[in-house]
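Can anyone check this?
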Amino acid sequence: MNTWPYPRWIAHRGAGKIAPENTLAAFRLGAAHGYTMIECDVKLSADGVPFLLHDATLKRTVRGWDATESATAGDHPWAQLSHLDAGGWHSRAYAGEPMPTLAGVARWCLANGVALNIEIKPTPGTDARTGQVVAEHAARLWAQSPVPPLLSSFQPEALAAAQQAAPHLPRGLLLDSLRDSWAAEARALQCVALICNWQLWTAPLVHQVHLAGMRALSYTVNDEWAAQHLWALGTDGIITDRVDLFTPN
């Protein structure tokens, strides 16, 4: 990218731990704390609707599904998923909060001037299809926006499909461990960012990423000492749950 349009601080799944993750309620709370960019997880329903959910299954963060049916979210059509409760697991105050679609999130972000990091989170076995469909929807939904969403994934196959479907949208490779092939993968995918588990960053790695023309982003940073360490290393962005601790700048 010729210019980097994103802020240094990014709210993880909306407002991380203090609201039900990946809901518009969490997005609103993150924005209320001053965050102008939010990270979220997007996967596909059985009928191809992109919606927000981190886990492959419904068990941890969703109530109201029939336990006799498959708990895998991607096995169900959106008409069924849209009626489930994605807030009651967190607290009574959020009971009844639905899982949003990517389209609904786009409307909110565009209306409120909030940038988005879309982590493509495929149901196992659907990497390429999920990457393609999410990128196609993102390209259409943000077609008139000067700040495009940043697409990221741990799955290179998903990012490759997103690259083919919408090559103009920026991409970031997510890493939980530093494999030898990361640089070649990021180069082939024309990534603008490497997004690492924050404990992986060292000064030489930051330097290598910057030499490759990419930004160095970190997840998920919830302690002030860790944030200060990462800024001292020269990293470019932090994804945090603690929107109540860190004041974005």
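Reply from J.R.: I decoded it. The chain has eight helices and nine strands.
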